[in-house]
Amino acid sequence: MMKLFKFSLASVASVSIIFGTLSTAVSTSVEAKSLAITNAMVYTATSQGILKNATVIVENGKIKQIIGQDETPIKTDESFDAQGKILTPGLIGAMSQLGLVEVSAVSSTRDAGDKKAKITFDPSLAFNPLSTVIPYTRKGGITRSIVGPAGGDSIFKGQTFVVDLSGKFDSVLIANSAVVAAIGKKNKGSRAISLQKLFSTFEDAQKKLVKAEKAAKKAKSQSKTKKAEAKASKELKRDEKIINAMLAGTKPLLVYADRATDILALIKLKKRFKLDLIILDAGDAELVTEQLVEAKVPVVIDAMRDLPSSFDSLHVSLKTAANLVKAGVKVAFFNQDTHNMYQLRFNAGNAVANGLSSEAALAAVTANVADIFHLNAGKIAKGKTADLVLWSGDPFELSTRVEKMWIGGDEYSTKSRQDKLRERYLTQSDMPEAYTK
């Protein structure tokens, strides 16, 4: 069987790079000042619901106006007739390692984690907008993503960053957007250490802030306020500034946790320190829905998670999403399989098959993700970023495909390296099989 493969691993890598670059190249488009998408079935992902035969006006990368079927569209530079097809906000991926991992089995292409990584770890510095995974992900209607770190030995794994899927070199929109931590089961030692570390980190930081505040008041009485504040700011370490930002509520804390008691401990942490808390995975969240709703803590879950992965998640099922939403918990979906993020819409479709409404499923991959992570996207509404997707049918159906995609108001192709390879090997050619040049 080995004789059938006439090319080396280096050749495969070369082909991947070549076709990945081509995929990015064909994705860019000629920018238009204004665009009207007319005659669309607009799924707004807002309280407006679904608008039939509506027109969406895009200008300078933002949604300027949504016009009903009885209103006259304003004049724009370009116009596209949607022919009554479904137009939704671009889907938003969350917590994958998109652009940080090219080939999972090749260590030299993995930049998402490091043994020494801690709270200050900024993986956005290694983001590759030319990754061949990005055009492939666009095929699933995903226009934006929150990329998460894999971290290291520390309880704090690093910080997330937000990207659009344009493939441009300036596609990192927000760096260091939130802090990621992980608690729960441990192969060695006790989970109590992680929880204790989490609480003591914020306790120590809060005490230091109180001490600094007292020193500032004392300095004020001596007319030395500015010098004291400058000195205190200079003395803060990078990790202390990040922790203080979380205490101030300006930087969210994302924590991977499954067991109900761990989730309750995190809710206690949020209340005590007034944190912007988001729980990831949340396997046993159904057991503590009342507490999650009361504390206004959202969860980001895998809608396809069914069987328990450990003793921490004995109560997870395909109906978890529907049950959480019914109880009033704010839910968003993620697919952490970086190379299969495009399946996010299929995961949402399975949640619909297990009791979740189509509207709630769409929100879980658009509006809710945007709300939870504080993004100006995920909705078709005035002033929102014009990340839009036109579908051939129901977005959650397997046979449906993306017909048009706009990121920041510009149209992008969904053709990926896989499409190009298929076309190449299905086309008759005089070139030898598996040619590399």
Give an overview of the whole structure.
This protein has 437 residues and is of the alpha/beta class. The protein has a domain at 191-343 and 360-377: Metal-dependent hydrolases (TIM Barrel). It is built from 12 helices and 18 strands. It has helices at residues 9-25, 133-138, 191-221, 225-235, 238-247, 260-273, 289-295, 320-327, 344-353, 358-364, 367-372, 417-426, and strands at 34-43, 50-59, 62-67, 78-81, 86-89, 91-96, 142-147, 156-159, 161-164, 172-174, 179-182, 253-257, 277-281, 299-301, 331-333, 388-391, 402-407, 410-411. 41% of the residues are buried.
Task: Walk me through the topology.
Layout: H1 9-25, E1 34-43, E2 50-59, E3 62-67, E4 78-81, E5 86-89, E6 91-96, H2 133-138, E7 142-147, E8 156-159, E9 161-164, E10 172-174, E11 179-182, H3 191-221, H4 225-235, H5 238-247, E12 253-257, H6 260-273, E13 277-281, H7 289-295, E14 299-301, H8 320-327, E15 331-333, H9 344-353, H10 358-364, H11 367-372, E16 388-391, E17 402-407, E18 410-411, H12 417-426
Parallel strand pairs: 1-4, 1-5, 6-7, 11-12, 12-13, 13-14, 14-15
Antiparallel strand pairs: 1-2, 2-3, 5-16, 7-9, 8-11, 9-10, 16-17, 17-18
Kindly estimate the percentage of residues that lie in beta strands according to DSSP.
Answer: 15-25%
The coarse overall form would be globular
Order of secondary-structure elements: HEEEEEEHEEEEEHHHEHEHEHEHHHEEEH
CATH class of the domain at 191-343 and 360-377: Alpha Beta
Q: Main β-sheet: number of strands, strand sense, barrel status? A: 8 strands, mixed
Number of helices in the DSSP assignment: 12
CATH structural fold name of the domain at 191-343 and 360-377: TIM Barrel
CATH homologous superfamily descriptor of the domain at 191-343 and 360-377: Metal-dependent hydrolases
- For the terminal residues, how far apart are their CA atoms? 24 Å
Q: Which residues sit in consecutive blocks of at least 5 with pLDDT less than 50?
A: 1-30
Could you say what the CATH architecture of the domain at 191-343 and 360-377 is?
Alpha-Beta Barrel
Whole-number mean pLDDT:
89
Can you count the beta strands? 18
Radius of gyration: 24 Å
Q: Which structural class do the helices and strands define?
A: alpha/beta
Helix residue percentage: 25-40%
